[in-house]
């Protein structure tokens, strides 16, 4: 486990302890730049050896899986280091600071059959609720999806941004589109599939930071669905929502940081039989969308040597949407999927060197 802060203690450790009771799995090490933090983590967890050097840990322990709970600016180098040592990686979101970084990570993965691979923590697309709705949409049981809404409206005050690395492109990677709303956008993409175009706006309205405080976007999907996206850190009544209006029903999800079956609602259109509407409501056993839901599949894939979900092209899609959202917002142009590649300023940095948005040159150099 690399990074022994709150996300490692509160999410990654419990997520791995659950499957450890069912299969061969041992936490062998914890790595942190602070020796005291790594030592305290191992003592509290009752397992593992503390390290302050990732390379030394990889050489001595040769783990099969490395989890990353470090700030985004370290993800590229740490993921590549682990992959080259033969370890699979489970990396906390956001995956890295740019599409260029993501492509470098994918290039460091092993062969298509066997790995090692690097997967991103996108736990909202896992769990019984999202599994059930994904299946209904895939078979068009409720008819074609037509209209969608993706909302992450949270609240962050001055104290939040007083932490030096927050609100800066070089350290946080982006604003709420990147660090907060990426979870709901990833779930929307997982449910609705590919998108060909996006238009967007972004603004700084309150805090004195580099990144945006709010963004809105319009997205057209290949299946014809037209969607709106709102990401905000200026909203005191915090909520996360997804809504998809299909021909014969509306699917709605309302939660904050994780969902259960009870957080989903399916409202049938007039004329739908009670029997059919009742079948749509059968979500099965309740498996919450926590960090615990994703590792079970990841570990099964690791043992089988097959590419896991939220890795490779499947993991890149959400970062590409974020990059396209920023480009559309900062240029005022419609951006098309697949259009951001080498040579495009938004490929190497999400701010795209846009006037008024990119860091000052001296700070960027620092």
Automatic annotation (TrEMBL):
Q: Please give the Pfam families that the UniProt record associates with this protein.
A: GFO_IDH_MocA, GFO_IDH_MocA_C3
Identify the stretch(es) annotated as Disordered: 287-314
Which segments constitute the GFO/IDH/MocA-like oxidoreductase domain?
Answer: 132-251
- Known InterPro entries for this protein? Gfo/Idh/MocA-like_OxRdtase_N (IPR000683), Gfo/Idh/MocA_Oxidoreductase (IPR052515), GFO_IDH_MocA-like_dom (IPR055170), NAD(P)-bd_dom_sf (IPR036291)
Q: Where is the Gfo/Idh/MocA-like oxidoreductase N-terminal domain?
A: 1-106
PANTHER family assigned: D-GLUCOSIDE 3-DEHYDROGENASE (PTHR43249:SF1), UDP-N-ACETYL-2-AMINO-2-DEOXY-D-GLUCURONATE OXIDASE (PTHR43249)
| Protein name from the UniProt record | Gfo/Idh/MocA family oxidoreductase
Source organism: Streptomyces laculatispora
